Fold this sequence. Notes:
Layout: E1 2-7, H1 9-12, H2 27-38, E2 45-48, H3 56-68, E3 74-78, H4 81-85, H5 96-113, E4 117-121, H6 135-152, E5 155-157, H7 159-166, H8 172-175, H9 184-205
Parallel strand pairs: 1-2, 1-3, 3-4, 4-5
Helix pairs in contact: 2-9, 3-5, 5-6
Amino acid sequence: MKILFQGDSITDCGRDRKDINDIGPGYPKYVKQYLEECYPQLTFEFVNKGIGGHQTKDLKARWQEDAVDIQPDVISILVGVNDTWHHISDGKWVPNDVFESNYRSLLEDIKNKTNAKIIMLEQFVLDFPDMRRFHNDIDEKIQIVRRLAAEYADRYIPLDGLFAAACISEPPSFWTKEGVHPTDEGHQLIADYYFDALSDIIEESFIMH
């Protein structure tokens, strides 16, 4: 069973891009551990193609080679925060229709050119004072991702809401370094929800009952 992690720096997390087997120290590492412990009867292949700094347009540009050609059984996508962050200084936001078109293109290619199950994870920003201006743009784009998930996703992980809930028990600085890049605890939180979503897919589609 081949699982492909796609996205930006949150997924990349400093992995060795020259080593196809290196999935990095972030949430994919914990997902791998959980799956191998819980499903010893299955053989997994894990591929991390997250690249730091990438926006939806960047994933679109490399999608054939870095997603379609891999022909995963499951693909997860966590992208979108850079579509806001890269434009925060001048407020010249990526138009919402362009963002939606880019993201929809990724999903259409997966649906039409692979047999992969799709896990979508929403972009998030936690409540740090310097990050509050993100909401001028990112909130609408999160809603776009949620609508796309209703059309395309086999499972959806609403991370912006889940992290907001987690910040009731621990402060934002416990989960992320500055509002976006997770601490180890933040990566583990993502992995917990990811594992739950992927376990559902495995039980439904990859284990004979």
